[in-house]
Design a protein that fits this description.
Strand content: 15-25%
Radius of gyration: 17 Å
Largest sheet: 8 strands, mixed
Structural class: alpha/beta
Number of strands: 8
Distance between the termini: 37 Å
Helix content: 40-55%
Length: about 290
Amino acid sequence: MRQWRQLGREYRHRGHKIFYRSDGVGPLLLCIHGFPTASWDWHKLWDPLAADFRLLAPDLIGFGFSAKPKGYPYSIFDQADMIEGLLSELDIAEVEILAHDYGDTVAQELLARHAAGGGERRPCIRSVCFLNGGLIPGANRPLFIQKLLLSPLGAGVAHLLGEGTFRRQFSRIFAPDKRPQEEELRQFWELVSRDQGLRVLPRLIRYLKERQRWEERWVGALAGTDVPLRLIAGALDSISGRRMAVRYAEMVPSADVILLDDVGHYPQLEDPGSVLKHFRAFINARP
């Protein structure tokens, strides 16, 4: 992970540092990570994808190596603003998107803006491939620790959250035989806790309420878009696995869904080979 950080670049959003990685040549593939981790989630896919794409993977504000300002108005809308600003800064007009978890919701907001059209900073979205995430709020099952962080007790829970509790809770969302090794868990903890990151978790996790409030907008963006979509879902994910995939197929016309039967919440880490295969097939089949 040290090399990942050393090879990163910096962008400023509302005066705050945004860390991002960019490598490769070809069509621009924007990789949007999930909660509570960072762009490092993509490291197992990075080199293979960089052979075919120009990759761009920011740490969203509040996450990873990006700034984690206290009292900041974190929201999905602001994360989408940040991404549009970064794409404009890099003079990128067209993007493919690969998103996971929290990043799925950011991608849904970008799709809603794409449908609305207009805006000189707004790129053309050519495709979106989703990994496990709360695409349909009613089918999402947050962890107990997430519910606590979202509750009035959230600040106290975040203050008391230790590495051991984090490791146990985080490991639970992987398939039993694909859980991270000790060194990987240490690195994820470092990403979450660095720069007093625990104190912003209760603000970041308000995205669960945003999903409910803006369900019509964000689910509508899936149901009404002409942008090619694919969902690659780890079926063993208790948060947004098989149940989410079934609900997504009911809500999205001609839904394109790939279920990975022995994978949990992090397909890109648990079975990167299958994710690469199905993602490339999706891109190659697109008109």
